[in-house]
TrEMBL record:
Gene3D superfamilies: P-loop containing nucleotide triphosphate hydrolases (3.40.50.300). The keyword ATP-binding applies. InterPro entries: AAA+_ATPase, ABC_transporter-like_ATP-bd, ABC_transporter-like_CS, ABC_transporter_ATP-bind, P-loop_NTPase. This is ABC transporter ATP-binding protein. Residues 4-223 form the ABC transporter domain. GO terms for molecular function: ATP binding; ATP hydrolysis activity. Transmembrane segments: none annotated. Keywords: ATP-binding, Nucleotide-binding, Transport. Pfam families: ABC_tran. The keyword Lyase does not apply. It comes from Cohnella fermenti.
């Protein structure tokens, strides 16, 4: 069975004046170890889809399972990286990365140091979020998501705020993690070049007049 199975998934948002159908009967399978990039124009439901897979949004119709279990329940280790960095302003960089683990544990300390190296924030261990640029803060968020070597990483346009050089570096970091650990990746972007560069498969979320429907893309040979 696929690691992620989505069947007949629909989601609408009701506001006072109208109902927006964000997802309409989505079918999607993601196998363990795939690097799936999800592209589509703004507003086609990419973030909504990812939030559902992340378990952050439970008000949907249809089925979504991860490793054979309902997404809402406890399950496999997931890492999320959002469009905007989400850091605790009162914690230093290293404490933001360690999250609920104690840096007094030498194993945690070592892992955090390794991640700081990976996202090139050496020297900023003791800095607070307000001292960082947007791109640096995003790299802290990325390091935090990697802390526990999650089996699946969910990324919502994570590199949008990075300059071209840092973006290229972070893309390589992500590919390296994927190749070495076989982490399953679901990566949302509206950048087609990025989707082609990163993905072992591209999924196109395509809005149609009056409906929004998932179209499953071709398998691309990976170099
Ligand atoms: P994308 O990530 O592809 O830009 P989204 O998943 O953010 O698309 O949004 C899909 C649709 O659902 C859009 O029309 C958006 O306006 C609507 N939507 C998303 N979140 C909400 C919300 N919390 N309340 C109302 N409408 C929403
Ligand atoms: P990005 O937003 O991609 O992190 P910036 O252009 O903002 O890049 O910063 C480039 C470099 O300048 C950073 O990698 C960092 O070394 C340094 N820098 C940026 N902002 C700060 C800051 N507030 N304090 C110290 N150094 C900074």
């Amino acid at each position: 069975a696929a690691l992620l199975e989505i069947r007949e998934l629909s989601k609408s948002f009701r506001t006072d004046s109208k109902t927006v159908q964000a997802l309409h009967h989505i079918e999607l399978d993601v196998q363990e170890g795939e690097f799936v990039t999800v592209i589509g124009p703004s507003g086609c439901g990419k973030s909504t889809l990812l939030r559902i897979v992340a378990g952050l949004d439970v008000g949907y119709e249809g089925q979504a399972t991860l490793d054979g279990r309902a997404i809402s329940g406890p399950g496999i280790d997931k890492g999320f990286i959002f469009q905007e960095p989400r850091l605790f302003p009162w914690l230093t960089v290293e404490k933001n990365i360690a999250a609920d683990l104690s840096l007094r544990n030498p194993e945690v300390k070592r892992r955090v140091g390794e991640l700081i190296e990976l996202v090139r924030l050496n020297g900023f261990e003791k800095a607070y979020p307000k001292e960082l640029s947007g791109g640096m803060a995003q790299r802290v968020s990325i390091a935090r998501a990697l802390l526990r070597n999650p089996r699946i990483l969910l990324l919502d346009e994570p590199f949008g705020a990075l300059d071209a050089f840092t973006r290229a570096h972070m893309q390589e970091v992500l590919l390296d993690i994927w190749r070495r650990n076989g982490t399953t990746m679901i990566f949302v972007t509206h950048d087609i070049d990025e989707a082609v560069f990163l993905g072992s498969r591209i999924v196109i979320l395509k809005p149609r007049p009056g409906e929004i429907r998932a179209k499953i893309g071709v398998d691309l040979p990976y170099p």
